[in-house]
Amino acid sequence: MAVKGLGEYDDGNIFARILRGELPAKRVYEDHWALAFHDIAPQAPVHVLIIPKGRFISLADFAARGSEAEIAGFWRAVGKVAHDLQLEAPGYRILANMGEDAGQEVPHFHVHLFGGRPLGRMLSKPA
Ligand code: 5GP
Q1: Ligand 1 mean position to 20 CA, how many Å?
Q2: In this structure, is the dihedral angle defined by the CA atoms of residues 87, 91, 96 and 97, taken in order, positive or negative?
């Protein structure tokens, strides 16, 4: 089985379809570089996904192939979303799953933004 996060970009993935407006999403921010929307199964009071607009499978792919403008624009958008959601004072966490061990489900690079409560340990205990 192909490792999600590597290989060929799949234009039929869920986030590609959200980007094209084919699937609904509760959008919170959009600019030239990024789109942010609420996760469909939130794991914190605030759980937003931020995705670049380009066809990148994972952080590995984005870091390797993204232009400096795409990378800068994307990370500025992440910071802006957290700021606009007023998460800076209480604090927040960002997380990106890359590949199989991390459990990446959707093969379009995305950052999770969590906030709205104390977030506890950085990782769950090993199984
Ligand atoms: P991953 O495990 O790939 O890092 O995270 C994928 C995330 O996408 C999960 O948190 C999951 O709840 C979310 N998700 C999956 N399908 C949809 C969808 O159709 N809409 C939205 N808004 N989120 C989705």
Answers
A1: 16
A2: negative
